[in-house]
Amino acid sequence: MTQPVLSLNDGSQIPQFGFGTWLTSEEKAATAVSVALTAGYRLIDTASIYSNEGGVGEGILVSGVPREEIFVTTKLWNSHQGYDEALRACDESLRRLRLDYVDLYLIHWPMPHRGRYLDSWRALITLQNEGRVRSIGVSNFQIPHLQHLLDETGVVPSVNQIELHPYFQQHCLRAFHAQHGIVTESWSPIGRGGSLLRDEHILRVAHKHRKTAAQVVLRWHLDNGLVTIPKSINPERIRENFNVFDFRLETEDIALLNGLDNLKGRIGPDPDTADF
User: 141 by DSSP, 3-state: which?
Assistant: First the structure.
């Protein structure tokens, strides 16, 4: 199945539907990634802090899917921020993944109080110029952090991967992205703890379309022009999540889910104050 792609501001393209590996162990990552690629996923998202890059690389190898068909993302962890440190960290990620390049390299968190994300960004620019990464971006950056990168380097991130789901929709940040040609990628796209999937409004839409609540929420991300990266280690769930390309939400369905937004709906750390 051919899935939709979005164009990045550097001329590359990113699959709109990907596979996340957060909280997936090294041992289970290889099987999960292989199952996902066999099911049709073509975007695989990992990070150095997940401690599963080796398993992700193994899953890519055993899947039999050609490397050029797979879009691989990994991320620079907070303790490795800084110019020289970021260059070394990327090389270590490539070694663990057993890849010559990654398609997207992200600064995982801004950590503004440490004052190192600008030097890290300059390192990512170097990595892109040298061909070790195809596209560069950030994760969990707020508008002031993004503006600082633009003002100091003139290089616009291709992607900002942020917490985004119907209970926390980040409209102001998404508007800034749209203004500057930054693709919005959603982490925790179906929330955590199952509350989204038990929401009566979402269940009503799911019943109408004969889909699961998770499929409806994932379709909502696609219909809003977002990249989404659900995660699972259950093969049946991995395949079920991907089965969202045979329907579209109607205007009233999208309006219903859009109405679930809550300014206090954040479930992850606040990027302005996070320190880890």
Answer: coil
